[in-house]
């Protein structure tokens, strides 16, 4: 719980009483590799904080999985269009390794917003970070060549390269695994 409160404190101030309240609102969830935090056709029930582990966010486009992003230790995670509207999702969020999360459901999050002095500010600042990250990635996907997108992946997730299978990295960059191998070879030659 300390990692969660530290993460929240990076956005807002918390009193001792507010820290205690937070510990009652979140519950622990564990996922095994391959298990889903969210599946297409289901409602996203939680916002999560990743204590340990690694998850990937993807869509299934006519049988082809396209990875949108990765979340690891210290990240907040949800599929907000489904969570905020409580409607079914068209996305998947899957654990890639043993994962420990602290999760909060919609009603408890509303309680947090009402009963933590700067709770709504925390929600706004956290979602702004998610939004900016998504816009940057989408902009890069449409405007940058694959080699630059791969370099941005390395800059964004330097500690994850060894933890993520290459075919998921290729999917994230928007290319086939063979093309990723060629890009990696070119980058090694440059250095």
UniProtKB/TrEMBL annotation:
<dbReference type="InterPro" id="IPR000595">
    <property type="entry name" value="cNMP-bd_dom"/>
</dbReference>
<dbReference type="Pfam" id="PF00027">
    <property type="entry name" value="cNMP_binding"/>
</dbReference>
<dbReference type="InterPro" id="IPR018490">
    <property type="entry name" value="cNMP-bd_dom_sf"/>
</dbReference>
<dbReference type="InterPro" id="IPR014710">
    <property type="entry name" value="RmlC-like_jellyroll"/>
</dbReference>
<dbReference type="GO" id="GO:0016301">
    <property type="term" value="F:kinase activity"/>
</dbReference>
<feature type="domain" description="Cyclic nucleotide-binding">
    <location>
        <begin position="10"/>
        <end position="112"/>
    </location>
</feature>
<keyword id="KW-0418">Kinase</keyword>
<protein>
    <submittedName>
        <fullName>cAMP-binding domain of CRP or a regulatory subunit of cAMP-dependent protein kinases</fullName>
    </submittedName>
</protein>
<keyword id="KW-0808">Transferase</keyword>
């Amino acid at each position: 719980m300390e990692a969660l409160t530290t993460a929240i404190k990076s956005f807002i101030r918390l009193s001792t009483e507010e820290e205690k309240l937070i510990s009652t609102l979140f519950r622990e969830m564990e996922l095994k590799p391959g298990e889903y935090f969210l599946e297409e056709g289901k409602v996203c029930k939680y916002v999560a904080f990743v204590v340990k582990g690694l998850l990937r966010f993807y869509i299934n486009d006519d049988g082809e999985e396209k990875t949108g992003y990765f979340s690891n230790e210290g990240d907040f995670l949800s599929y907000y269009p489904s969570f905020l509207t409580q409607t079914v999702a068209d996305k998947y969020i899957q654990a890639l390794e043993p994962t420990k999360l602290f999760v909060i459901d919609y009603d408890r999050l509303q309680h947090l917003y009402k009963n933590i002095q700067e709770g709504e500010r925390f929600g706004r600042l956290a979602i702004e970070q998610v939004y900016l990250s998504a816009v940057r990635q989408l902009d890069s996907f449409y405007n940058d060549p694959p080699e630059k997108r791969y370099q941005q992946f390395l800059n964004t997730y330097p500690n994850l390269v060894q933890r993520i299978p290459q075919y998921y990295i290729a999917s994230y960059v928007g290319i086939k695994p063979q093309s990723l191998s060629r890009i990696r070879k070119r980058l090694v030659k440059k250095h």
